[in-house]
Amino acid sequence: ATHHTSTVISRNAPVGSGSTMYSNEQTLRSSLEDSSSAGVTIKSGHAEADKFDRFEYWLRENGAEFSMLELREYVTKDSSCVSQVESDAAEEKKETGGKESTYSSSSSDEKGDETSEMRGVHARVMISPNTVCVAIPRKCLITVEMGQSTPIGQAVLNSDLDLDAPKHIFLMIYLLWDQKVNGDKSFFKPYYDILPKTLSNMPIFWSDEELSYLEGSYLLAQIADRNDAITDDYHAICEIAPELADIATLEEFKWARMCVCSRNFGLQIDGHRTSALVPHADMLNHYRPRETKWTFDDETHCFTITTLQSIPVGAQVYDSYGQKCNHRFLLNYGFAVEDNREIDGFCPNEVPLELGIMPDDPLYDAKQDFWTRGDGSSGSNAGVSALAAAVTAASTSRRQNIDPTAVVSTALETATSAASEASSHHSASGPPSRSRSLSGNSDESIPVIKRVRVCVSNNENTRILFSMLRVIACNESELRILSSSPSSPIGDGGCPGYVSRALLGLSSSGVGSSVSSSATFYRTCRDIRHPLGLRNERAAMEHLLDVISRALAMYPSTLAQDINDLADESSLPRFSNKRHAKIQVRGEKEALHHFAQWARTALEVMDVIDKEIASEKGFGKNEKEVSASSRAPGFDHVIHAMEEEESIGGHGSLHHTIVRYCADVLGALRREEIKNIRRSRISRGQDCNGASGFV
Question: What's the predicted TM-score (pTM) here?
């Protein structure tokens, strides 16, 4: 069987966390079927059940179809699930009771004596693949357009407000406006009644003590940013629509934001992209890999959920919230998944690394100029839009057999004027290289910081990270190569060279000179996709280790301590905010340790390469040293050992991305260095027969 991790979380729940290793999906299904306590059907007899009866009755009366499904609950007083199997396999809902008319964000510690329940949607019958198991008619959906049609929505539409999440805002406005204005007469009253009244699991509502468990994590800044953005949006809307303050407090506005954030679906209805709240569909918990799909059916005018595989009687029916890093799950849904892995073993958990040119770098000004290229900070970027239009026009003209020179001429004049104006402004305001930072600090000693999120993978962000490290680590000659050397064809089809340079964010010093149409240049610090040489690559890996060391020092605990803490559920109870915080920081540290291992391994391999190069350079000079060097494990031997270790797998084995980097990237550098040495020796008339044998 193919081993993978099942990860399940909830769109609705204030708390919930769990993941279990299963040999395959059927094993998971069997575990749930065999459990006699995998939830009980919600029955009438108390107010909590009655509101769900009213909710389902309301849906059926309005044409919804979900007869194959039933809601089940797992009632608990201490946040522990009745069914251990279900708690291990799923991230369930846990809605905390409260006054119907009040939405609260208070800490879970203040609600310890309130009854809570965890819910899931289960199959009443065996459901075959490709079966529509949920159909919710359009009239039961709350859409962006409905929020836009309210008086407050109209005021927002007619304003020039720059809101954090416009589509979310309009859903929030309708949610709050309809409940306040229409109250018990609202068509959606049964739906509003089942929405969670508290969202204490959402990090923006966490207590200071709970937030302290995230110390060292950049997620703290994201939480603060989210809180600030919601607050700013609230006050901005109140400025143009004062009636918002009459229908919702700031805390209620925050509740609505997180409710919408965790429950909305992005849909296409009648060819128009929108977002919507979909009653009942938003009650399905999250499972990876996905086993259902959803869409809006324009023929039936319903939101539908269709099964992708058989679902046994009694088994839970899941939605998939997508492949996400835990910081997104935690920030937007209030969960962190214990073992957030895909079927192929890929873990999307990320950690942000911050990089910048240090002010004491002797090449600071030159590096900073390249580092900020493309950021819109220099005069050379002015007029780029006009130049882009010129190139497009020139290409069109050539296809029509028209001389492109006249077509480009006017646009070039406009671009040159714009660049000159920007350059004059730049000279008047002083160099920006030391004054711009992500924090907006104007202190000239603070460099421009760039942030890149990386995970245990050799994806695009990893390549960007290595590119920026190479820029930071370059010496004067390497920087000169980066700033002016061709890298790959641009294919501008005869467009003047200085147009190509301007489009690529370079200075206009080449105006009037002839530049080959096949030449282009490194545009930004993100584009150095190939190593510049062994010296630069070593310096880049050493800098990466330094960056990671500083990042790890920000946390109050080590990765080993986090793993031990998570093993103690009495200290970090299942489903608690503190546990989710610890899961999040553990994931960040795992990514940091991966890149630390990458850098250390690369440096060790480069040590081996350096010895081989020294041996090659010393060929014919010191046979004793060459002989001793030849007896040491060579590059091929080291790579073979690494590949064997990777194939065996197991805890502590090298990740395949590290092995491939060392074998392919460092291997290519080694071959080039040795070839250069031999070429040099041949050019000096020396015989290379009998050389040390490195290839």
Answer: 0.77
